[in-house]
Amino acid sequence: MEKTNVTAEGVGDLYVETERDGGVLDRLGVGHQTPLHAFLCPECGLTQLHAELSE
């Protein structure tokens, strides 16, 4: 895992900010802004963010 920044654009659109420096995210094909999806547990409130990674 690598530390990165999350940004919001428009109404509710979340993106992970990545640098194209040959790091892990670059090798996984993650662009400068990759969309995120949030998942929420209705029982405990745990929230997780997942990036759409190309294979």
Order of adjacent strands in the largest pleated sheet: 1-2-3-4
**Residue runs with pLDDT of under 50 for 5 or more positions:** none
Principal-axis shape equals: globular
Beta-strand proportion: 35-45%
Secondary-structure element pattern, one letter each: EEHEE
Structural class: mainly beta
Mind describing the biggest β-sheet? 4 strands, antiparallel
The counted number of beta strands is 4
- Average pLDDT confidence is 77
Question: Your description of this structure?
Answer:
By secondary structure, the chain is mainly beta. It has one helix spanning 24-27, and strands at 5-9, 13-17, 33-40, 47-51. Strands 1-2-3-4 form a four-stranded antiparallel β-sheet, with no helix packed on it. The longest helix has 4 residues, at 24-27. It is globular and about 40 Å long. The model has no long low-confidence stretch (mean pLDDT 77).
Write the layout of secondary structure elements.
Blueprint: E1 5-9, E2 13-17, H1 24-27, E3 33-40, E4 47-51
Task: Please name the defining characteristics of this protein.
mainly beta; 55 residues
Could you give a quick summary of the protein structure above?
With 55 residues, the chain is mainly β. Helices cover 7% and strands 42% of the residues.
